[in-house]
## 1
Amino acid sequence: MTGGHPPGRIPPTATLFLLLAAACGGGADRADDPDAPIKVGAIFDLTGPTADVGTDYADGVRGFVDWTNRQGGIEGRPIELIYQDYAYQVDRAEQLYGQFVGEGAVIFMGWGTGDTEALQLRIAEDEIPFSSASLSHVLGDPAEAPYNFLVATSYSDQFRIALDWIARNHAPDNPDAGAPVVALMHNASPFGLSPARQGGEAFAAARGIDLSLYPMPRGAVDFTAEFSRIRQSGARYIVFQNTSGPAAVALRNARSLGIEATFICLNWCSNAQLVELAGEAAEGVMGTMPYAPLTMDVPGTRVIRDYLASQGETIAGKTNAYTQGWWTFAVFAEAMRQVLAAGGDLTGANIRATMETFADFDMGGVTVPITFTPDDHLGAKGLRIYRVEDGAWQPVTDFIQAPDPA
Amino acid sequence: MNRMRYECGVFHTRYASEMGLRPRPLQRIRLVLIAAAIVVYPFVANGYWLDLANQVAIATVGAIGLNILVGYTGQISLGQGAFMAIGAYSAGLLTLQAGLPWAVGIPVACCITAAAGAFFGLPSLRLKGLYLAIATLAAQEIVEWLMTHWTWLTGGTEALVLAAPRLFGARMNSPFVFYWLGAALAAGTALFAANLFRSRMGRAFVAVRDQDIAASVIGVDVARTKLLAFATSSFLVGLAGAMIAFYRNIVSWERFTLETSVVYLAMIIVGGLGSVRGSFLGAALITLLPALINNVGRAVQETAPQAAGLLPHVQHAVFGLVIIVFLIFEPRGLSKLWGNVKDYFHVWPFAYRKG
């Protein structure tokens, strides 16, 4: 029993833990330095199921940051955008949010409805002003989500505007035409259901509109089954709450099946990409578009076109998601500028308080003017309705306000 | 004194001491060190690292659960996401609708998942291998469909929002607070699984995996054992689902898709099939890998913006690459790699390898 034996087991797995513990030094350096960059966190969907519009939105946000920094930043402080692709995965979003806020991000640009809802409690606890690219109506209620701001018309308001338009334009000369039958084809997710559940259904019931819902399974390439049910229901109006990719697939489907109906795209499919993907099938499609397309000539799109020209780029291939990314950030940037100009600290509470004073903030004509109050974080209540004519979105109305909830 | 620390120098005077879970003193020292590291970690880590640790803890529980079924009993399952969903929704609905306290809700949710697991395990009595994989895939699809269509129960595609339960007076969704629950549950699960395979039932699981006919010849009731394996595995997988529900306060079907099932299979393959240690290592690697790639990507972002544009795609590729590399070079996973390292030092300076 003596000697000659090799050394025994090394005390092991502990090293792994120690390594892990050692790797996490650092920590948050809150920007107290008056010239330090302003850190802004962001998650974008560049590879996930909503990457079709997500990439353009991300480019818009990055374009605005670059443009602002070239102009000398916000009150002399450059913006440092910390962002990552999160592929529309809730876990990834939670992880990146925690990481970026830990690194000192003062505001956060979010994306999906599912992940924004998942983060809602933490956003309130961390006091991080949060931009919801998700335009879910409930996120605009400060009692529920005190730090979420919607810089566009909510999905529910968009849907109500669409329903109201349908009710008013449904056979106005023929009193025997009966109630309009509307089909909402939606992304099978909280995002997709949001317009119907958060006011759309109640509004339809109050206005005597026959509304039914048809979920569009993720990744589906054929909607024949859905359309045959829609045909049976006698729906003459089909509203899409989805991104442009799936909506374009459905439109092509519908045209080849000979579906006679008026198609209306809500926010994320009323864009140039839909026209590009659906081609002929997109002709005549209506859209509730809170943000003007880049082809429209208003001051808010001119600044973007000038910036792109200075970068040797054009608006070709860029959609109103780019406008939306740019101008959404612009509102937060203005709030931060006002906080700094007033000599305040760039804290979440200060930025929020400043944003809540915004009244009719001019968006250069790309959206209705933005208003926030302490009781209402739904920045915009109205929009223009557009229609695809000869392959381009043309406004058919001026700004119209969302009808009162039923 | 020194002699006692070596494997062959340990002198057991009773069977009980020889059959202990950690029979050698050095192993016990290691255990104490790990326990100390677990206790110290939350005080040195920031929120981000705590959140990652919590994700690892949840993934560890789920991976051990899946490993009991796939690695130890040899029943391939693609229904991991479905069983996690059942655990998460049961825990959420029991606390939200039935008003049970979370401490009661979790075990009940686990039992519900175990029952569901045993039910969806019924095809295993007739089917093996790939055929069983397809049968469990059906379970995944059925549960996914139920989640999104049983609106009256699950809220459909809308997420189920839970009130944040309290743990010792603090909100459980804070990474620091949940860490203690997560660590305790992960450690408890690891201890349970390690002991399970020293018991008659656990050995029956392994016998069924290795050769089911031989197992039935020596007196193992194969049908009962398979269903028990499904139930035991699902119990733990349901626990992982319930942990997610209470940590994130929100249950949505998007978290429990087929992709979840595949990711968990990747964890146990990379970690090591039929190994509790491997389940933990695999869960840690697969959870931390995207975070690592993210951080590398952000470091590159400043110096090479062009390369950074490709990063999101690189992430997907690296994930696949890791799995392929492990399948080719070390099919028995990280657990075996760790064993190799230990063996190397064990016999050093001689080249002789064990086994």
Note: Confidence is low (pLDDT under 50) at residues 1-31 of chain A.
## 2
Amino acid sequence: MFESQIAPTYHLEPSEEQESDFILNLGPQHPGTHGVLRVILHMDGEYILTADPVLGYGHRMQEKIAENMTWAQVLPYMARMDYLSALSYNQAWVCLVEKMCGYEVPPRAEYIRVLTTELNRISSHLLWFGAFLLDLGAFTPFLHAFEDREKLLDLLETITGSRLTYCFFRFGGVGADVDATFLRETQEFLDQMRAHLPGYHELVTGNVIFEHRTKNVGVILPFDTSGYGLSGPVLRGSGEAYDVRVKEPYSIYPELKFNVPVEQTGDCMGRYLVRLAEIDESLNMIDQILANIPDGDIQAKVPKIIKPPEGEASMAVETPRGELMIYAVSDGTKIPYRVKYRVPSFANLSIFSKMARGQLLADALAILGSLDLVIPEIDR
Amino acid sequence: MSLIETTLQKLDVPAEQLDYAKTGIHARLSITSDQLQKICRTLKAAGFFLETITAVDDLAEGTMRGVWFFDHYSESSRLQIVIESSRDNTVFPTIGMIYPGAVWHERETAEFFDITFEGSKDSRGLLLPLDVTFHPLRKDFKRPKHQIAGIH
């Protein structure tokens, strides 16, 4: 287990004993790696002997950047880490600062936060759905997913002002109120998405080729999950019902009724089914929010200059990819002393070397796709 | 009794219970280097998963604090392990043989802070270019001058 992952340097020479083995350089610009990820594969014919991911092509030292900014100035950088779930990252940062400073958030703002975050989660899963099927060679599902996602981005653009790298939440509230038009359009989207979801299953889930490509491919055993710190759909596809929204509830999640989808198989198919079920759960959550959203303020009164008291705190949220935990140390000044981002994709990718060993190259791409990686989040 | 309390009893090291509502951390263990691997074995057997490994460079006190975070899938019980060490030639033991996912976290922390994880089978960097000689998250780090002419 240990040796397979580790090589003392980046080997680019095949060993002398076996003549059939060779080194294959996958990435950093390969479409299957979804970003600038490079994997050095030691191959025996079509089979992988070892896989060694090389990270850092998109490294920006976000943690050092945070040490040179005020607490408020860090907020826009959040969206640049995981660009597919920027609002989850927004939420983690504002909740962390609110926790440290003891700010109260008005209920309407909390509802708007969860409403937009769940819409963001659906758009992230839809992009993953399209891109994963594209990895497996199916082009049509991508177009269906992007058509629905486009409507979501339009919807979110009307209140957040941007389409991808949102900076919408504020300390103690949100940046803008939702109006009746937005709520009506959200309801329309819900109806449309509910009508389309069975079509996704019809088109893909029962497809024979898809089943052969995903069933029993890239199995993660429950035994391995805690050792690698997995979280999110990757973990829930292996039978562990861990969701930060349930286990460590924040915002208004305790008031919402939703299930945590779990699959026992641990393969690519399991992770696929978990994500599609999560789209459905998010739709249910948005339904409840639309029915119960209270009137009132959207912004609490907070000081202009944020100075959390001396000490340290952590805040965990559930992003579409898993558990994001931010650990911050404050020295009582307006600049964070130390910020650490525990990002979900980082831990989820670390098990890839173990999963890829002995697999076919084509299956390794299916495994990479099923992990739902966002490389700028890993590289930070 | 909550999971964190039973675990702390099993560990048998002095622990500090923190205010979860304010810090998001249930308990903190301040230990020495030689206790780490034994504690991690107990945690692994109890089903804790590794959240992250990092360090905090405290320039004012002249210490480097290694920080390990663990949590549990079945019940929220965030556990922080802290080892204090000197800023120069900082050495912490690896937990890569207990938590294989720790290897990446250790590689990252090692290159950012100039820390050695003793016993680690992989001492390569992770995120920085292979040839860098600086450690950006140390508080006395000064940004190197641009070496490419014409780019400012």
Note: Chain A has two domains: 2-54, 62-351+359-379.
